[in-house]
Structures are given as structure tokens and as C-alpha cells.
Write a sequence for this structure.
């Protein structure tokens, strides 16, 4: 969405520039929504709704330089809203291969992210994928910054456990002194 920054001023006043801006925003909006929802159909719906919201609200954006973080917030909020409406989002294993659209790319990481709650996944992706600070994430997901930091801490621990689990399973029980 950072690449679209040049178009923001033009898009506020010109319909064809707005179409180009949304066309540039769409792939990243979809990737982010898919990373949160792990369902292609829901991600597409959420990204489309987010892009429509971006187009409607663009004239009210006071500082065009904030467009990237502003648009990420809209996408994340739409994805979280979609997840709340449909809590039965299918797990990552049931989704189509998503390697081409998931920012992590690593199958172990994707599986570990899938074990997090939707809110934790959104917070982790905003922090590591979008580079948001705790205060920006707090604003995007509607919780205090301390709650964001708590979710980041618990998510990191869960990810670490999930990523080291396969290695532990490969170790013979006889090697582990407390297994007997």
C-alpha cells in the first residue's frame, strides 16, 4: 500500500486515479485479509468491503502520508468484523494452499499462525508484516496498547511452542529423562 502513496492526492479528486489506487491496494488488502481469515472467499469479501470503505472515506483523509497505516487499519477492521460475523472460519489446513498470498510463506509458520486466535493473528501480522507500533495496532483493533503488548507476548510464546513442537516430536522418548 506504500506504493499507492503517490496516487492518494490525485485519487481524492479524480475517479480514474481512484480506480488505479484501489487496483494497487487490492493485492495487499487481500493478502492481509487472507492472513487473518485463512479463507479465500471470506478474505475476498473482506478485502472488497475494505477497498470500498477506503474509496468512500478517502476524501476525509486529512494527511495523505498516513494512507498506508490508515488503509491497513481499514482492512484489518473489516477482516476482524468478518471473522466475528462468521466464527466458523475454516482452519488453515482446510483452506486452499495459500502460499502465494500468505505473507509468511513458510508452511510451519502458516500452521503456527493458524493456531492463534483471530485477534492475535491480526496483531502479529500488523506488528511484523505491516510494521505497526503497539499504539497503532491498538487503534486498529480497538484495544489498549497494553492489551496489544500482552497479545504479542502470548502469541510469540504460542508461535515458539508451535514451531518447536515438530522438533520435539522427532526426539525419541528414551532421550528425554522426564518421559519415563
Amino acid at each position: 500500500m506504500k506504493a499507492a502513496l503517490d496516487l492518494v492526492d490525485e485519487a481524492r479528486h479524480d475517479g480514474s486515479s481512484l480506480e488505479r489506487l484501489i487496483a494497487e491496494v487490492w493485492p495487499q488488502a487481500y493478502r492481509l485479509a487472507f492472513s487473518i481469515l485463512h479463507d479465500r472467499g471470506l478474505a475476498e469479501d473482506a478485502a472488497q468491503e475494505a477497498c470500498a470503505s477506503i474509496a468512500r472515506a478517502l476524501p476525509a483523509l486529512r494527511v495523505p502520508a498516513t494512507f498506508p497505516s490508515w488503509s491497513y487499519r481499514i482492512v484489518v477492521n473489516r477482516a476482524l468484523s468478518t471473522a466475528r460475523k462468521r466464527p466458523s472460519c475454516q482452519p488453515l489446513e482446510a483452506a486452499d494452499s495459500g502460499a502465494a498470498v500468505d505473507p509468511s510463506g513458510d508452511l510451519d509458520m502458516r500452521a503456527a499462525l493458524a493456531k492463534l486466535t483471530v485477534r492475535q493473528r491480526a496483531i502479529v501480522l500488523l506488528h511484523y508484516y505491516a510494521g505497526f507500533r503497539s499504539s497503532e495496532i491498538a487503534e486498529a483493533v480497538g484495544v489498549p496498547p497494553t492489551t496489544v503488548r500482552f497479545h504479542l507476548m502470548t502469541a510469540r510464546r504460542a508461535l515458539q511452542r508451535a514451531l518447536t513442537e515438530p522438533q520435539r516430536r522427532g526426539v525419541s522418548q528414551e532421550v528425554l529423562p522426564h518421559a519415563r
